[in-house]
């Protein structure tokens, strides 16, 4: 049986990843800040014995280390770094503050780097050896025609660099990485007017992750499989 670990598993795309992997029969390590109050996730876990709930605030380094210790020796086939924030308070010239910048960078950039560091041996010990992180098209410098979204764009562009470095550094162990753009999706972050449902976006992303070739490690992909320029 394959295993997936998902951060931010309590709502939005994370919750849909949990649902789809659980229905495929995978062992699902569903991480979120407060498992005890994650009602939708708990309901899913009640009907699927292959879902384990684990506490993880991705900005808490102690919790990352505790998670790694708890999972020592367990293989993780797909490591899904999904948790993220939009940083609306730090989107425009005029509203930015240091505190908000650091909060966004901590969640969107530093946490995925520390999680890759903490769990890389688990991924390397698995059969499928793949790390995927939720990036966004607006992280593409080529795509930045409108400006704004300062902390979100920058934090996810830095995340993309982390994924490329990890692709290079972990290639010897057979570990692959991919940065994913999920499309504009109907979640709390995307809003109800967004183009895609979580179901179609997540189904597409699972297909991209599952079919990632070794020569495609360190690439930046849309949920439909197309590539985004950096
Ligand atoms: P949501 O806002 O719906 O969900 C965000 C998730 O991240 C929640 O589970 C939230 O948990 C979690 N999270 C935030 N901060 C932390 C933290 N410190 N520790 C642990 N978990 C945390 O967003 P989406 O589901 O839409 O987005 C998921 C990912 O996809 C994000 O990385 C986002 O940037 C990316 N993305 C989304 C797009 C969209 O259109 N929806 C477009 C492009 C990219 P909690 O409930 O505890 O806050």
From TrEMBL:
Pfam families: adh_short. It comes from the Bacteria. SUPFAM superfamilies: NAD(P)-binding Rossmann-fold domains (SSF51735). CDD domains: carb_red_sniffer_like_SDR_c. GO terms for molecular function: oxidoreductase activity, acting on the CH-OH group of donors, NAD or NADP as acceptor. PANTHER family: SHORT CHAIN DEHYDROGENASE, SHORT-CHAIN DEHYDROGENASE/REDUCTASE SDR. This is NAD(P)-dependent dehydrogenase, short-chain alcohol dehydrogenase family. It comes from Ferrimonas marina.
């Amino acid at each position: 049986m394959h295993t997936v670990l998902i951060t931010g598993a309590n709502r939005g795309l994370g919750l849909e990843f949990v649902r789809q992997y659980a229905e495929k029969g995978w062992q699902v390590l569903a991480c979120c800040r407060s498992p005890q109050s994650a009602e939708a996730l708990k309901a899913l876990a009640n009907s699927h014995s292959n879902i384990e709930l684990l506490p993880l605030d991705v900005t808490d380094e102690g919790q990352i280390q505790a998670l790694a210790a708890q999972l020592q020796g367990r293989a993780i086939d797909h490591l899904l770094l999904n948790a993220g924030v939009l940083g609306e308070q730090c989107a425009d010239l005029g509203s930015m503050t240091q505190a908000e910048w650091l909060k966004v960078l901590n969640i969107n950039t530093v946490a995925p780097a520390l999680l890759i560091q903490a769990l890389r041996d688990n991924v390397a010990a698995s059969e499928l050896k793949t790390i995927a992180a939720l990036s966004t098209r607006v992280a593409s410098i080529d795509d930045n025609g409108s400006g704004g979204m300062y902390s979100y764009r920058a934090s996810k562009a830095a995340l993309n660099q982390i994924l490329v470095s990890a692709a290079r550094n972990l290639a010897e162990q057979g570990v692959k990485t991919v940065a994913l753009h999920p499309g504009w999706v109907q979640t709390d972050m995307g809003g109800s007017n967004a183009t895609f449902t979580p179901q179609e976006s997540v189904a597409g992303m699972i297909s991209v992750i599952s079919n990632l070739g070794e020569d495609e490690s360190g690439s930046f992909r849309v949920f439909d499989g197309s590539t985004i320029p950096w």
